[in-house]
Amino acid sequence: MSKEAKSNRLKARLPRGFSDRGPAEIAATRRMIETIRAVYERYGFEPVETPAIEYTDALGKFLPDQDRPNEGVFSFKDDDEQWLSLRYDLTAPLARYVAENFDQLPKPYRSYRFGWVFRNEKPGPGRFRQFMQFDADTVGSSSPAADAEICMMAADTMEALGIKRGDYVVKVNNRKVLDGVMEATGLRGEGNAGKRLIVLRAIDKLDRLGLDGVRALLGAGRKDESGDFTKGAELSDSDIQKVELFLSARRTVQKRIYALAGDISERLETPDSELSTALKIAGWLAASFKGSTLVSEGTNELVQIAEYAAAAGYGGDRIQIDPSVVRGLEYYTGPVFEVELTFETKDEQGRAVRFGSVGGGGRYDGLVGRFRNDQVPATGFSMGVSRLTSALIHLGKIDTKPEAGPVVVTVFEKNRLADYQHMTQKLREAGIRAELYLGSGKMGPQLKYADKRGAPCVVIQGGDEKAKGEVQIKDLIEGAKAAAAIASNQEWRETRPAQFAVKEENLVEAVKEVLARHKVTWGH
């Protein structure tokens, strides 16, 4: 090949912020999705699917990262000159779907859906621009009981996935409380919407950046380790102190919350319960931000959520009121939730790390109403499937081994492809994954191919076997065990372990015996 041809050859490369997935991860994700689906359906939610592309104006002005091109989403103009965007979450498309089909849907409407979402954000370690979410939403109910139920379902999902109680927590706050804090700092009205969002995002980073980092984002701004500068909200010192006053509740309250333990019946009877903690938070907020209707409404809703959850047996060891929970998207109007993994693990350098948030959601009473003349209340939750998969793999809660490959029917004589195809189809009709070798190699390369595919066994039929009405079955799993125990290749050739002949009409039964011996099954 000439130098010019080599220089013009395309370079295979993956775009930044995206990842490829292999069979093992795909199988693990599929198993996890089926577990989540079972929990959501137990709560009465039904599936719906919306496309990955929506009209940009349908997604609204609630975009996740406005300092990126196209305000954080991937967008393009269609041939009719209308702008289209890849969905950045599954909630905005649901709002469009409900509004478009409003008269046909039962109200409240309970649905779940999962799929890929796309964000044009700055990529980094563990931060991808394409990831999978699994959502559940109740549209048409304004009751805090609907919010409490979403939190209960999130807790049940964690435990169904094998994350034990104490290794996760569902945190709950209310955007009305946060909006009341914004009012106290003078950030009212549409003109301050951008500043409010900066403040909320700063509060949301408290765990990661600490109080000094949040203070910088509330003021002039902050430069991170890479040298990138994030513009701040430019609040005055007195207004920054008001936000810090709100945040100071978080540390005191969390200590009290994390100390809660014991049987739910005792927790309901004793004053130091999650419900009483919620009442204490409500009292503290009311005293600190007097005269704020929003703070009053928000704290009352938090108390009701805590009451409903406690009555159903979900105490502070699973669902907690936490004033620091924000959620970054602007469309939330009431309670907001976040599921956090609380256990510590080690990174590759042996340093202690936490997975942190693996899902969240909240109430968004204005999102559906953008398409209608009336307000439609709604609340929902989104599980971050991609992030949660990583956590479960680390915990050993998901089998990361790839599923067994198919049984491979080898081609001994090329002029008998029809015979081999017939055998392959007989296996498939019996529910066995089977593949006819379609390469060009001789028997050695075919067996190596079967090994790479993870095949449990191969089927061989040469002229001698055909004359006898037989087939040879080579058990590759047993063969690998035997090979490890045999000292010499000569002994291997003489004993031919794990290979046997059966009548051709008994092929299916013999293969099933091999699969049963090694407990080989395939997911469906």
Search tags:
5-stranded mixed sheet, 19 helices, 18 strands, 19% strand
What does this structure look like?
This protein is of the alpha+beta class. It is 43% helix and 19% strand. The chain contains 19 helices and 18 strands. The protein has helices spanning 3-8, 23-42, 56-59, 91-100, 144-160, 175-184, 193-204, 206-218, 237-258, 264-269, 274-288, 293-311, 385-395, 417-429, 443-453, 463-468, 476-485, 489-495, 507-517; strands at residues 46-47, 53-55, 75-77, 83-86, 109-118, 130-139, 168-174, 221-223, 229-231, 319-321, 335-346, 352-363, 378-384, 407-409, 434-436, 457-460, 470-475, 499-503. The strands form four sheets. It has an eight-stranded mixed β-sheet with strand order 1-5-6-13-12-11-7-10, with helices on both faces. β14, α14 (417-429) and β15 (434-436) form a beta-alpha-beta unit. The longest helix is centred in the middle third of the chain and has 22 residues, at 237-258. It is elongated and about 95 Å long. The model is unreliable at 252-272 (pLDDT under 50).
Oligomer kind: single chain
Q: How many strand elements?
A: 18
What does the average pLDDT come to? 83
Widest β-sheet, arrangement of strands: 1-5-6-13-12-11-7-10
Low-confidence stretches: 252-272
Query: Which range best describes the helical content: under 10%, 10-25%, 25-40%, 40-55%, 55-70% or over 70%?
Result: 40-55%
* Number of contiguous helices: 19
Evaluate the radius of gyration. Answer: 29 Å
Structural class by secondary-structure content: alpha+beta
Most strands sheet = 8 strands, mixed
Terminal residue distance? 46 Å
Kindly estimate the percentage of residues that lie in beta strands according to DSSP.
Answer: 15-25%
Overall geometry comes to elongated
